[in-house]
Sequence to fold (260 residues):
Amino acid sequence: MRRPSTIGLIGVRIATVLLLFVFVTRGETQSKRPSARLLPVRSIGCESSGQVEREAPPEGTRLAAVSSPASRQLAYYRSAWGLGVLAPLGWHCFSIIGSSGETLYVSESPIDSKAFFSRPAWEPSGPVIRIARRFGGTSGRTLVAEVVARVFPAYRSFAREVTQYFDVKFPSGPYPADKLTYKSKSFVRYTTPAGHEGLGTHHGLLKSDLAIEGAAAIVGPRSEIDLLLLAIKLPPTQRWLTPGIIHDFEQETHRPAPFR
Fold:
């Protein structure tokens, strides 16, 4: 039987040491990152207005899959109808609901609820977070179809049906400036650069010198899909909170709708 050469044994030993170094280094690097686990955050009820009035839900606590530093900086803002989102603690919130769906705003500056129904309507210009749910089975179907035509090719049959039924046309393909990252055929993260139009400004926030990050998700049965659209515009000092907000939003998309 032929014995392994000395050079071969040395090569095996070197390779083993290098592999051990890689695994140890990777473990040390991951241990230095803030771990995301279920931690309690403050839950804040928001004033809601629309076709049916409801009182703001009571304050309490909610578990969120965020890092420990983020849990001390964030709160969960929830409308009377159940739509909610993580946002910086101490901000202001207001939601509106109609036949097409619901929209919840959480703003750094105070929100004048009466301004939503004035002309021109209130539009947030500074740091703000907006989450909207649009119903694909009601008057919100054209809003759903427009986003589907842009970023959800797996659901374009829905957009085609709406186009034929209502004799409307939608732009096809993503906004030119947007950067998209798909997690699945029904969930996409996006970044709308500062000063550009994109998903971040789609029926929501105004373009400004701040970039808008967020995500869009299709939920519900294919025969009657809904759209969830999140837009986050934070100042540079708070932008590190964005990944945790989007991650929590993604987890929420797996839960049943709070209302229909």
